[in-house]
Design goal:
The complex is a heterodimer of chains A (166) and B (269). Chain A is mostly helical and 166 residues long. A two-stranded antiparallel sheet of chain A has the order 1-2. Chain B is of the alpha/beta class. In chain B, helix 9 links the parallel strand 6 and strand 7. Chain B starts with a strand and ends with a helix. Helix content of chain B is 64%, strand content 11%. Classes of the chains: A mainly alpha (166), B alpha/beta (269). At the A-B interface, helix 3, helix 5, helix 6 and strand 1 of A face strand 2, helix 2, helix 3 and helix 4 of B.
Chain lengths: 166, 269
């Protein structure tokens, strides 16, 4: 099983060697699948909706980070960001590892669910990932939401005073 | 005073960041202060190089917590109706929280994060706590009659063409009733509950920054929707006591975003 710590050491090795090994995407994908399966487990729970949301949100943020990580690794040779993508990953993975453990323990009911802490850490992970190009950009995120048949309206006075945009 | 800086308080930062509508579950999550708070950020964005808007790390952290609370509360309310599938709800609300957080980060980009001395703010914290205690006593003993009479006279002068049978009704509706309601709100806000430690910390940070900015003859505004800092409503005379006393004591000028925007748009900053 791929652990976040394994990913961390693989990326550190790539930094030392100044090269990106795309085979790491296989491990990232495994982890992403595991997170997807944990999201399904949350949906099956019959617990408190706010507790379930905290875990679901945390897993959703982690999944989005891993998706962007895969994309960055694939594009590293095109964007000439070698080994920057590895450095970015190494910055974000420790926080993700902590959040992942906390969420997993909460889901397996080994620990009391501290929903505020989980949500807060997930927000911090989103913020850190946004700062290090490891989170879906706004346009992609909105088009993903639309693909799911949803419409997310955010009014932006600065761009379009008095108008809604998606 | 030549220059002005505007310290953004959490109710305004949160207010300007929460406005989402998920069509297929017909869920709207929108802060009550979105319409009045967001235009201020449009102004900051337009004049970003002037760094008019400022914020502190404490306000940002508190805003993130508050934003999550608002989204969770809305989720809870909708889940209780039992109208939607759990999967749809959790997916939609994960997107809402994620996008509102992204929006908050966008808003913060147009503000300068001010460094704060925790030691100095701790000293001011107790001063602010004492100040609020005294203000609570003042509000408890407040006699609203003079403000109500002023508003009633204003209503009377605007009602000169109104027929006699409607005369007193108009004075009551325009002059007396709104002020009595404002007085009631003010008492509830200060006597029943009072400012919490977050309000006190924010005012302490504002007072700390005002001291620094005073050295360069810069006026510090605190923009807020919270009635522990600003008037109960724009027209209320009686609740002027709150921003007035804060300005006298700490040189911090508290105003609502919509009112402050009018002021700064008409004055060069």
């Amino acid at each position: 099983m791929t652990t976040i710590l394994n990913l961390q050491s693989s990326f550190e090795k790539m930094i030392d060697e100044s090269r990106i090994d795309v085979s790491i995407n296989k491990d990232i994908s495994h982890l992403k699948d595991e997170i997807e399966s944990m999201k399904d487990d949350v949906l099956k729970r019959k617990g408190d909706i706010q507790d379930d949301f905290a875990m679901f949100f945390s897993l959703d943020v982690q999944k989005k980070v891993l998706e962007k990580m895969i994309e960055n690794v694939n594009n590293a040779h095109i964007t000439m960001q070698n080994p920057l993508v590895a450095k970015q990953a190494v910055t974000v993975l420790p926080l993700m590892s902590y959040l992942y453990s906390l969420t997993k323990e909460s889901l397996s009911q080994k620990k009391l669910i501290v929903k505020d802490k989980i949500i807060n850490l997930a927000i911090q992970l989103q913020n850190l990932s946004l700062s290090h190009n490891l989170y879906t950009n706004k346009e992609k995120s909105i088009s993903r939401i639309q693909r799911k048949g949803m419409k997310l309206l955010v009014k932006d006075f600065a761009r379009n005073p008095g108008e809604n945009f998606c | 005073m030549l220059e002005q800086k505007i310290l953004v308080e959490q109710s305004v930062l949160v207010g300007a960041s929460i406005a989402c509508f998920i069509e297929d579950v017909n869920v709207q999550v929108k802060d009550d202060f979105y319409e009045t708070s967001k235009p201020l950020f449009a102004h900051f964005k337009k004049r970003v190089e002037e760094t008019i808007g400022i914020v502190t790390n404490f306000v940002i952290e508190q805003s993130e917590t508050k934003m999550a609370e608002i989204v969770l509360k809305k989720l809870d309310d909708i889940a209780k109706t039992g109208d939607y599938k759990k999967e749809k709800l959790l997916e939609s609300f994960a997107d809402i929280l994620s996008e509102c957080n992204r929006e908050m980060r966008e808003n913060v980009k147009y503000l300068r994060v001010e460094p704060i001395s925790n030691e100095k703010v701790s000293d001011i914290f107790s001063e602010v706590a004492d100040f609020y205690d005294e203000l609570r006593r003042k509000i408890r003993d407040l006699d609203p009659s003079s403000e109500i009479m002023t508003k009633a006279w204003q209503a009377k002068s605007s009602a000169k063409n109104v027929g006699d049978e409607k005369f007193f009704e108009k004075i009551y509706a325009d002059g007396v009733q709104p002020e009595l309601e404002a007085f009631d709100k003010l008492k509830r806000k200060f006597i029943d509950k009072g400012p919490d430690w977050v309000d006190i910390e924010i005012l302490a940070e504002a007072a700390y920054l005002a001291k620094i900015y005073l050295k360069t003859k810069t006026k510090l505004w605190l923009v807020s929707n919270d009635q522990h800092f600003v008037k109960v409503n724009v027209e209320s005379k009686i609740s002027e006591i709150v921003p007035k006393r804060i300005a006298e004591e700490f040189n911090v000028y508290c105003e609502r975003p919509e009112e402050l925007l009018k002021i700064i748009k008409h004055k060069p900053t």
